[in-house]
């Protein structure tokens, strides 16, 4: 197991991190305001309920069809990319992926890598791996750039710096960027970022990007973005390395338009992003720009585990729009950092256990009220609430042989299981239930005053002295 | 066994759950109607102007004059052009008489990357087509009009023939059989570069062009 997987225990400290945010009115306001904005933007993009629902069904069908053929499509993609001159690499673990990328960098004696936004590169902690061997990895998405300058991690997969106010960013730029005076004018701040990063694009040895869709039939890598940093990262440096999870593949090019439409409308409420960049090869002999080498790293990192189970496979339908977190009452209150994982919010809760194992993520699926909002807005109809229930079962059931998931039973407690079994027995039997409720109401003075987290903010729960059935009896 | 073989072996060991092929064509047939050129022009304009692009209706005869007007109004004295294209040649001919310097993209980028990043205020390229539904330009950079032309200069001016506007992205890719083969880089561009990464406040000119100007070539009035 890799070092960071051992050290990374998101479940620990979750309560403390969540409490910090819940008790910080400024952060609460930041998240609430931004999520309300995104929710409203999304809904204006879907004026017709019929269109939204049929398009979601089409999106689900496209993703399920392609996942159904995944191994064959990966081989087809590899063949066509190779034919187009793009070199394909495979990695089972984050360490393997980092080794492949660093190997390419070192072959080119690279000193500077500019990065377009890539959550998979966050997943493998590529920036740390680069730092360790003396390669500067520079984030170029404005949000990622801000977060990197602050020494933090993204708190949202689409809007990485959503937790920061413009005043905080103004202070950060003033302190960390040479020759910059304090300004909290957003246009000026963006122009500062543009100026710094342009010089990096000019001299970078390597451009790194993620992939939104990989098209098997044509051997094409598709990238969605608004800023142009993704295009610059994949066009200006002499070498482009793309990294993606193995699931982001579609067989046909005509599968792309519905998914692109669902993605941009669900994510930021745009009818389309400013740029949709389709890369099908390195620079040809007669062309004057573009990278002379293009690489694709295909990463597993637990995705094959999700794939092996019919229900869990639905996790891989995700197109990473972030609508589930925008609509999640838990995410909106605690923000992205509390989760302690690369992917926060509902999608983080269902994908992270496959990447990190249930030992490290056993309580993640319990940070949910099961309100169902995530499932209702998911553009590809991932049944997120059902998957959360399944993951709770996987975490807290008694460990058994040949588990589906790594770390199955990591949260198992004999005592708690016995308590619930007793509860189930009482509630299944009318006689036992009647006896129990009679005792509970007559001996209500025995209920403890300290009821743990409940009484930390509320008065103790106490059964009524008379049950409803007693009251009805008295009345008649 | 390599990582590739191990990943494929795990996927192949999983239950096969074949699903029917999605009927993308049927969804578009039911939800998007084919519009006339005039309707498509109006829809395209509405969307791309909403995304802060400037659009000027011109004709085949008048566009060089409009190009000059736009450059003069923005006080741009230099324009990056593709000399290997007909419109690039025409721009060179017309603009050289008016004191605007046309820089030709003739060498590999390695020979003039500094200049491209620091000293090119504007560029002119042609669009291959457009999409009305989303107000989107379709650009296929090639050896004459390389990729960086539409990306690095702060002002990007695009010539678009109104007859090449399609209803949807789906329509353009199926009508032109993109699945059969794509250039090294194909692009959809739907406005000037922008970001909302600071407090969800929209700001233009993040990394790509700060201004996008479309010269929409229609029939003679």
What does this structure look like?
- The complex is a heterodimer of chains A (476) and B (221).
- Chain A is of the alpha/beta class.
- Chain A is 51% helix and 10% strand.
- In chain A, helix 17 packs parallel to helix 20 and helix 21 crosses helix 22.
- With 221 residues, chain B is of the alpha/beta class.
- Chain B has a single domain, classed as 3-Layer(aba) Sandwich (Rossmann fold), CATH 3.40.50.10420.
- In chain B, 31% of the residues lie in helices and 24% in strands.
- Chain B is built from seven helices and twelve strands.
- In chain B, strands 1-12-7-4 form a four-stranded parallel sheet, with helices on both faces. A four-stranded mixed sheet of chain B has the order 8-5-6-9.
- Chains A and B meet through helix 3, helix 4, helix 5, helix 9 and helix 11 of A and helix 1, helix 2, helix 6, helix 7 and strand 9 of B.
Q: What's the arrangement of secondary structure elements?
A:
The complex is a heterodimer of chains A (476) and B (221).
Chain A lengths: L2 H5 L6 H9 L2 H21 L3 H20 L1 H14 L2 E6 L2 H14 L4 E4 L3 H5 L2 H7 L3 E4 L2 H8 L16 H11 L9 H18 L2 E4 L3 E3 L4 E6 L3 H7 L3 E7 L3 E2 L5 H13 L6 E5 L13 E7 L3 H5 L15 H4 L2 H6 L10 H12 L1 H4 L11 H5 L6 H13 L17 H15 L1 H13 L10 H5 L10 H8 L1
Parallel strand pairs in A: 1-10, 2-3, 2-4, 4-7, 5-8, 7-10
Antiparallel strand pairs in A: 5-6, 6-9
Helix pairs in contact in A: 3-13, 17-20, 21-22
Chain B lengths: L2 H11 L10 H8 L5 H14 L3 E6 L3 H11 L4 E4 L4 H11 L4 E4 L8 H6 L3 E5 L2 E3 L4 E4 L15 E7 L3 E2 L2 H7 L9 E5 L4 E2 L7 E2 L6 E8 L3
Parallel strand pairs in B: 1-12, 2-3, 4-7, 5-8, 7-12
Antiparallel strand pairs in B: 5-6, 6-9, 10-11
Helix pairs in contact in B: 4-5
């Amino acid at each position: 197991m890799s070092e960071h997987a051992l050290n990374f225990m998101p479940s620990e400290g979750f309560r403390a991190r969540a409490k910090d945010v819940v008790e910080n009115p400024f952060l609460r306001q930041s998240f609430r305001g931004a999520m309300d904005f995104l929710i409203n933007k999304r809904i204006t993009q879907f004026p017709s309920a019929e269109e939204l629902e049929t398009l979601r069904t089409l999106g689900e069908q496209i993703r399920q069809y392609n996942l159904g053929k995944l191994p064959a499509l990966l081989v087809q993609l590899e063949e066509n990319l190779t034919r187009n001159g793009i070199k394909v690499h495979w990695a089972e673990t984050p360490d393997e992926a980092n080794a492949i990328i660093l190997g390419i960098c070192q072959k080119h004696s690279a000193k500077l890598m500019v990065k377009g936004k890539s959550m998979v590169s966050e997943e493998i902690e590529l920036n740390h791996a680069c730092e360790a061997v003396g390669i500067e990895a520079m984030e170029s998405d404005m949000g990622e750039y801000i977060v990197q300058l602050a020494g933090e991690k993204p708190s949202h997969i689409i809007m990485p710096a959503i937790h920061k106010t413009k005043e905080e960013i103004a202070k950060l730029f003033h302190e960390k960027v040479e020759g910059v005076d304090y300004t909290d004018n957003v246009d000026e701040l963006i122009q500062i970022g543009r100026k710094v990063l342009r010089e990096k694009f000019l001299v970078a040895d390597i451009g790194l990007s993620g992939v939104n869709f990989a098209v098997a039939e044509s051997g094409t890598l598709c990238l969605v973005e608004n800023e142009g940093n993704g295009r610059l990262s994949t066009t200006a440096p002499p070498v482009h390395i793309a990294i993606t999870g193995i699931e982001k593949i579609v067989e046909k090019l005509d599968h792309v338009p519905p998914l692109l439409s669902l993605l941009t409308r669900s994510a930021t409420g745009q009818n389309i992003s400013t740029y949709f960049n389709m890369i099908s090869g390195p620079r040809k002999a007669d062309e004057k720009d573009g990278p002379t080498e293009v690489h694709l790293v295909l990463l597993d990192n637990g995705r094959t585990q999700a794939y092996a189970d019919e229900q869990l496979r639905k996790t891989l339908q995700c197109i990473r729009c972030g609508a589930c977190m925008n609509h999640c009452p838990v995410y909106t209150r605690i923000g992205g950092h509390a989760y302690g994982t690369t992917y926060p919010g509902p999608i983080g809760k269902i994908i992270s256990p496959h990447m990190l194992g249930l030992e490290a993520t056993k309580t993640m699926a319990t940070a949910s009220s099961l309100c169902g909002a995530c499932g209702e807005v998911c553009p590809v109809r991932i049944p997120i609430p059902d998957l959360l229930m399944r993951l709770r079962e996987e975490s807290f059931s008694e460990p058994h042989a040949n588990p589906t998931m790594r770390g199955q039973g990591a949260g198992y407690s004999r005592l708690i299981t016995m308590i619930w079994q007793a509860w189930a027995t009482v509630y299944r039997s009318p006689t036992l239930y009647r006896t129990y409720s009679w005792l509970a109401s007559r001996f209500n003075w025995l209920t403890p005053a300290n009821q743990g987290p409940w009484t930390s903010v509320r008065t103790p729960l106490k059964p009524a002295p008379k049950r409803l059935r007693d009251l009805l009896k008295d009345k008649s | 066994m390599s990582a590739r073989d191990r990943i494929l072996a795990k996927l192949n060991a999983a239950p096969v759950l074949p699903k029917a092929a999605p009927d993308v064509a049927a969804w578009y047939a039911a939800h998007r109607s084919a519009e006339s050129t005039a309707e498509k022009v109006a829809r395209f304009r509405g969307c791309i102007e909403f995304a802060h692009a400037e659009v000027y209706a011109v004709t085949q005869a008048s566009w060089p004059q409009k190009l000059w007007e736009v450059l003069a109004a923005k006080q741009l004295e230099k324009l990056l052009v593709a000399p290997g294209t007909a419109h690039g040649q025409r721009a060179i001919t017309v603009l050289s008489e008016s004191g605007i310097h046309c820089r030709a993209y003739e060498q590999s980028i390695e020979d003039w990357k500094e200049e491209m990043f620091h000293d090119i205020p504007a560029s002119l390229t042609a669009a291959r087509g457009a999409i009305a539904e989303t107000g989107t330009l379709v650009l296929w950079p090639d050896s004459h009009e390389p990729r960086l032309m539409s990306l690095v200069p702060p002002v990007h001016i695009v010539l678009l023939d109104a007859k090449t506007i399609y209803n949807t992205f789906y329509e353009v890719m199926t009508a032109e059989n993109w699945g059969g083969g794509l250039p090294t880089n194909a692009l959809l561009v739907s406005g000037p570069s922008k970001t909302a990464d600071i407090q969800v406040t929209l700001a233009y000119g993040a990394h790509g062009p700060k201004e996008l100007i479309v010269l929409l070539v229609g029939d003679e009035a």
